[in-house]
Fold this sequence. Notes:
It is built from 12 helices and 8 strands. The chain is an alpha/beta fold and 360 residues long. It has an 8-stranded mixed β-sheet, with helices on both faces. α6 packs antiparallel against α7. Residues 94-102 have low confidence and may be disordered. GO terms for molecular function: ATP binding; ATP hydrolysis activity.
Amino acid sequence: MSSCQDSPEGTVQNILGQESLKWVFVGGKGGVGKTTCSSIISILLSRVRSSVLIISTDPAHNLSDAFQQRFTKSPTLVNGFTNLYAMEVDPTLENEETPGGSDGMDGLLSDLSNAIPGIDEAMSFAEMLKLVQTMDYSVIVFDTAPTGHTLRLLQFPSTLEKGLAKLMTLKNKFGGLLSQMTRLFGVDDGFSEDAILGRLEGMKDVIEQVNKQFKDPDLTTFVCVCIPEFLSLYETERLVQELTKFEIDTHNIIINQVLFDEDAVESKLLKARMRMQQKYLDQFYMLYDDFHITKLPLLPEEVCGVEALKSFSRHFISPYRPSIHKGTLEELERRVSTLRERLKGAEAELERLRKGKQKA
């Protein structure tokens, strides 16, 4: 089962080769390496696309840490690239942080939106998408927040459509009253019923367009990142089911932090972890036999900085192969060499303790 010979190729080449893709979401449980994976996917896309934008929608931004460069809510060119840009935005930004505060039209829209649960975040997200759509990027990669927040993010277009429909209903019911109130208080034309209606209609058009694009597998795909453990497997299954419900395409899973049986491992703890991981790896291949499953090795160090990300990216386009295969002459020689080194160290420690005892 774990050899998965009949499964699709275990790389992200299918994403790199899909020239029609406009939106790539990367998500999963917290702490599984989403930011590293989304950063590397954006780097790989920059090699085959004219311009790439990676956006972090996680309030606990890590893009700046991954690239070791400060990013803001405006697209910034990533050091060492000519066509890769990054920005960190928070879809839950309060309206008072936007230019103009809560005065006039924005204030009224804010007050109206607060009457509908979830629509405030959705409107902030809509404004961000509206901004992004005015920029001419070939493909946009989203480094999303942990699963629960991501599912809410993907619900925003539907939430907005429902919310704006409610607002339109309110307008139809109380539009005459609103018009009389604005005239009574001498409010200018920019705050009139028609102006409010125009603003809402404009936002609705953007959302409908984005919603349509998100549900188009030629334009949008979702990459699930996880680790070979029960909770992560459970979260991935939940995420895949929700994506299917939202009609959002997903056919790539990245399994991070995999322990490969290669370096003459003698530790009982590591061997137990490997057996545990293999159990869940088998389940991943059984559940998602038609997915592209990419396995990434657990490293002794963090992947930070452009050079480290570029170096690690090779495992995304070519399946990772353990350097030593178990049961071979080379593997046995490596194990013997390792044991000799450990024996030599133990003998040196024993000699040191003996000398200390004699002096005492």
